Amino acid sequence: MKKNILFLTSVKIDSGLERFVYTDLIKEFVNNGHNLYVVSPFERRLKRKTKIFTKENLTLLNVKTLNIQKVNFIEKFLSTFFIWYQFKRAIDNFLPNVKFDLIIYTTPPITFYSLVKSLKSKHNCKTYLLLKDIFPQNAVDLNFFSNKSLFYKIFRKIEKKLYLISDYIGCMSQANKDFVIKHNPYIDKSKIEINPNCINPIKSYKKNNNIFKELGIDIKDKSLKFIYGGNLGKPQGLDFLKTILLRNKNDFKYYFIILGDGTEYYTLKNFIEFNNIKNVKLNSKIEQEKYDQLIKSCDVGLIFLNKNFTIPNFPFRLLGYLENRMPVISCTDPSTDVGDVLEKSECGFKILSGDIESFQKVIDKLYNNKDIIKQYGKNAYELLINKYNVEKSYKLIIEKMNK
Predict the structure, then answer these.
(1) DSSP letters along 331-400, please?
(2) Concatenated DSSP letters of 226-281
(3) Pairwise CA distance, residues 151 & 385, whole Å
(4) What's the Cα-to-Cα distance from 331 to each of 138, 191, 208, 306, 318, rounded to whole Å?
(5) DSSP assigned state of 342
(6) How do 348-352 and 4-8 pair as beta strands?
(7) What one-character DSSP code corresponds to residue 99?
(8) 199 Cβ neighbours under 8 A, 6+ residues apart
(9) Residue 303 host element (H or E)
């Protein structure tokens, strides 16, 4: 039976519906005949007004908000605090007569609580939280504030309310689920499940060996090509990346391609230039089509997480590496289980952030045995198909909605 589903997220989703964890899930609902109403932000920097777009059974409501991503702490605090009200006002104005059967929402931000509470009461519908971020503990881990501060106490109270108002909570991994249960014993365990980051995998796979020349990347024929694509900020703990680059400075057996933007971008850029490191390419912006070609032509994917995290993150970017059939080196804190998943599936390696000797042994091993890269790449794609296909996430949510 066709349902009206409201999807709330702080990630910008517009009519282009570029491939992403959320957009693939949205399209899966749409393709299965449901009416999807997606509410997402137009950040202040875009200088665009709130607007609504409808095509068949998909409606996108983009709401003008403060800047949310890649901003200073003060603006992030304000945008996080007020986004629920901005979304509520837009929903009231643009979707006043729609009766919702299900509300799906993602963290960040936890401040969706007030909006979800209001909508759940009005529509008498079920609610499903896709838990992608555990706040405020992640901010404590990164030393933005302490767990004794007023900020922490305010946000922790909201976090608890969000978990209680949610009928179901989908966690990204087993470690993620265990953490939520351990630190929130008041929650009914039966409503917490593993609903991982998922995409709709592309089956075609073809390398474009000319892409490096097109992008001005000077790579030697036998170089082992590493790629990191994603945010460059405090959560990634980029000090370890700097250590890696310095240890392998101008050794063209290895070439590092870093694509992304964030608060630490210029710090990393200045570090590379100051140390005159030549076997690295840093780029903040690249067309999606070029990025897709580039990642297909690299050999090994890299994941970085700050070593101080006590919460078990599970980065989105892993899926792109798996889809493109490459082994992954996970350089993270001890709390996450992403490295354990990779090693169990024999498609990657677990390195604790800061352990340069272990990292060096792994990349030397890969350079000297290309068969490992090929086999691990095959295993990576199998892991994606078996565990992180968007059909899995869709079926889990629909199952709960139909209870």
Answers:
(1) EE-SS--HHHHHHHTTSEEEEETT-HHHHHHHHHHHHH-HHHHHHHHHHHHHHHHHHSBHHHHHHHHHHH
(2) EEEES--SGGG-THHHHHHHHHTTT-TTEEEEEE--STTHHHHHHHHHHTT--SEE
(3) 41
(4) 17, 31, 28, 9, 12
(5) H
(6) unpaired
(7) P
(8) 19, 20, 21, 24, 319, 323, 384, 388, 389, 390
(9) strand 300-304
**Token representation of residue 198:** 């998922």
CB 210 within 8 A of CB 293: no
Structure tokens of 114? 């007030």
Q: Please tell me the total number of residues recorded for the chain in this structure.
A: 403
pLDDT of residue 387: 95
Classify 114 as helix, strand or coil.
Answer: helix
Q: Residues with Cβ < 8 Å from 277, sequence gap 6 or more?
A: 245, 246, 249, 250
The fraction of the chain above a pLDDT of 70, given in percent, is 98
Place of tokens 């302490």: 146
The token pair at 91 is: 């929903």
Q: What is the pLDDT of residues 5-46, one digit of tens each?
A: 999 999 888 876 677 889 999 999 999 999 999 999 988 777
Find residue 103's DSSP bridge partners. 6, 127
Place of tokens 């989908």: 170
**HSE value, Cβ hemisphere, 13 Å, CA-based, for 40:** 20
Between these two residues, 329 and 286, which has the higher pLDDT value? Answer: 329
End-to-end CA distance of the chain: 13
Tokens describing residue 36? 């999807």
Distances in whole angstroms, Cα of residue 102 to Cα of each of 59, 89, 396, 399: 15, 19, 13, 12
The answer to whether residue 210 scores a pLDDT higher than 70 is: yes
Amino acid, res. 251: D
Q: Does residue 152 register a pLDDT over 80?
A: yes
Can you tell me the distance from the alpha carbon of 314 to that of 296, in angstroms, rounded to the nearest whole number?
Answer: 22
Q: Domains of the chain (ranges plus CATH)?
A: 4-199+389-401 (3.40.50.2000), 211-387 (3.40.50.2000)
Closest CA to 392 of 1, 130, 6: 130
